[in-house]
Amino acid sequence: MLRVVLAEDSVLLREGLVGLLERFGHRVLASVGTADELTAAALEHRPDIVVTDVRMPPGFSDEGLRAAVGLREKLPGLPVLVLSQYVQRTYAEDLLDASDGTGVGYLLKERIGHVEEFADALRRVSEGATVVDPEVVRQLIRRRRDPLARLTAREVEVLALMAEGRSNASVAEALHVGEGTVSKHFGSILAKLDLDVSDATNRRVLAVLAFLRG
Amino acid sequence: MLSPSPPSPSPEPGPPTSPKPGPTASSGPRPAPPRADPGVRAAPGSLPRTLSRRLLGGRPWRAALYLLTSVPLGVATLVALLLLAVVGSALTVLVIGVPLLLTLVLAGIPLAALERRRLRLIDPVPLLDPHREPPEPGLTSWLRTRLQERCTWRELAYSLLFAFVLWPLEALAVGSVLLVCGGLIGTPVMMAAGGDGEARVLKLWLADSWPEAFAVLLAGVVLLPLLTWPLGVVARGRAVLTRALLSPPDSALDSRIAELDRSRTRLVDAFEAERRRIERDLHDGAQQRLVALSMTLGLARLERPAEPLGGLLDRAHEEASVALVEIRELIHGIHPHILTDRGLEAAVEDLADRSPVPVEVLMAVPGRLPEAVETAVYFAVSEALTNVAKHSGASRVTVTGVTVRKWLTVEVEDDGRGGARLGGTADAEEDERGSGGGTGLQGVADRLSVLGGTLLLSSPPGGPTVFRLEVPCPPADSRT
């Protein structure tokens, strides 16, 4: 059970999200509609995780994201899951740069529809994992075409899934291969990209993201 | 005696394309519109007709007519101006004098309108009315507009000049020609009338025989066409003067252009605002509802319903997901958030991220630019990159951007095969399918030109293609 503070300006979605979170057994301590209320509620309730929309009143720009980054400074280690109606690499980077990049998630809002994956991402972020939307990873990979040219197509797939924050088991499941195969691919990727990373999932995610960001 | 006005068939010099009867009616003092095809001239062989046309419809007669009609018009103007001035001044003590004086000030307007029409007797190029339409109906609005216009005062000056200087001079010119020719031609009549077998020709010398009198008459007839020539010169000078005083001054034209410019800018702004509104509506409405729908379907799937409901739910969920992707792309295409939120540099980086061809972005555009500039430049770069991906076969693109002395210059250079055109692309097949980038680039150029910017495209066959836009950008404002 996670204690959640939720910020979302659309009432329809806010109510829906509250229902969804409760369906998975979490408790919503506060559900608010503005960035300022979010900051106040998070400081008051000290939740296990904050879930927030990026675009919120009054400016309907990136208030939610800024509030999340600000909260990470005030409450170090506070897990934050940011939802956005469109992917923006620079937003993801702002989040990853806020403190050490652990316990942050940046997902497209439409991922909520895949409720189980969403619940899984929520849990992982609350445990300190880094979760990045596949769309963002796609943008990052596209930008790094040159160094990635050394990888095989399959290796790029593995790298992308890892950058999203998945574990070996999760990658293996997504690609319909065994975990051993994934480990082998990962070893090859590390060698080709000249990376030196332990196999612990989260350190690996951050290292891969750092590499992709150049 | 010569009748003061030539018979009416003097052809109206009017529409530039109307066939002109003879060479005398052709060239004007100003660059005249293309002359009529000589083939339409009167059929050869009818010499008397040609001669009479040349005499009656020709320029000298129109010049004489113009100068002659000046006289009564000038007199009338003089009388009207004097009356208005005297009566108006006298009655100023009563309130009624003020409108009279106001009428005096505005008296140039109808006169100028008449003069512009009359000028077409001797000058085929029409003079445009320099006055603006009043912004609102009603006398007050009309008065305010007219009194603020410089041309109203120029027309008043013209009226004064016309009433006090021009028409007496014109009367003198046309009068002396008439007098000389009339005096010569009328000699036999005077001799017959005098009854003493002699007549004083122009009061200069004495003709005392019939042959002498008829010789003088002949001289008058010969002299007449010759003397019309200086009349033509006088009329032409008069036309130049009238044109100079009564034509729309450049500033009026400038202000019309400025107004057109402003209205074009307003249109583009309105268009842009509408796009933003549509984007917002989609974002706040349809997209949120679709997310909610997808969430509900996802929750329903959690209940693992029996077939066929389970399968149908899966399909519905899948379709909602596809619709979400589509609406996200649609919103991004209408107006990308990144541009609003993070400015041009980040938005161009985002374009680069999305481009299938590797793009290197080297932008040094500090701070935020005016919204209109950011939008126009963003869509310009977007269009350029789309064209590169579609047509160039390039393997690399570089986007550079700098602001130097309040001008933003952005270049998109690729290493493709070249041959791109603003009005279309080298890829004819693409154009036929209606997906050619040409119209898009034209739209980009139009949008930039509204901001006073330009678009240059250099794309020799074989490449490289350089797409360069320059747009003035006022000092970056403090938007964050």
Keywords, separated by commas or semicolons:
heterodimer; A: 214 residues; alpha/beta; 6-stranded parallel β-sheet; 6 strands; 55% helix; B: 480 residues; alpha+beta; Heat Shock Protein 90; 3 domains; 5-stranded mixed β-sheet; two-stranded antiparallel ribbon; 7 strands; elongated; disordered N terminus
Task: Write a short abstract of this structure.
The complex is a heterodimer of chains A (214) and B (480). Chain A has 214 residues and is an alpha/beta fold.
Order of helices and strands of chain A: EHEHEHEHEHEHHHHHH
Q: For this entry, what is the oligomeric state of its chains?
A: heterodimer
What is the typical, i.e. mean, pLDDT of chain B? 78
Distance between the termini of chain B: 87 Å
Question: How many beta-strand elements of chain A?
Answer: 6
Task: Please compute the radius of gyration of chain A using only Cα atoms.
Answer: 17 Å
Largest interface, Cβ cutoff 8 Å: A-B, 31 and 38 residues
Give the C-alpha Rg of chain B.
38 Å
User: Can you give the mean pLDDT of chain A?
Assistant: 87
Order of helices and strands of chain B: HHHHHHHEEHHHHEHEEHHEE
For the biggest sheet of chain A, the summary is: 6 strands, parallel
How would you describe what is shown here?
The complex is a heterodimer of chains A (214) and B (480). Chain A is α/β, with parallel strands linked by helices. Chain A contains 11 helices and 6 strands. Chain A has a 6-stranded parallel β-sheet, with helices on both faces. In chain A, α1 (11-23) links the parallel β1 (3-7) and β2. The longest helix of chain A has 15 residues, at 179-193. Chain B is of the alpha+beta class. Chain B folds into 3 domains: 59-246, no CATH class; 264-334; 341-478, 2-Layer Sandwich (Heat Shock Protein 90), CATH 3.30.565. Chain B has 14 helices and 7 strands. Chain B has helices spanning 47-56, 59-90, 97-106, 108-119, 139-148, 150-185, 187-194, 210-246, 250-302, 309-334, 337-354, 371-392, 428-432, 438-450, and strands spanning 199-201, 205-207, 359-364, 397-404, 407-414, 454-458, 465-472. In chain B, the strands form 2 sheets. In chain B, strands 3-4-5-7-6 form a 5-stranded mixed β-sheet, covered by helices on one side. In chain B, strands 1-2 form a two-stranded antiparallel ribbon. Chain B is elongated, with a radius of gyration of 38 Å. The termini of chain B are far apart. The chains are: A alpha/beta (214), B alpha+beta (480). Chain A binds chain B through residues 10, 12-13, 16-17, 19-20, 23, 55, 60-62, 85-86, 88-90, 108-110, 112-116, 118, 139, 142-143, 145-146, and chain B through 280, 283-284, 287-292, 294-299, 301-302, 317, 320-321, 324-325, 328, 331-332, 336-338, 340-342, 346, 349-350, 352-354, 358.
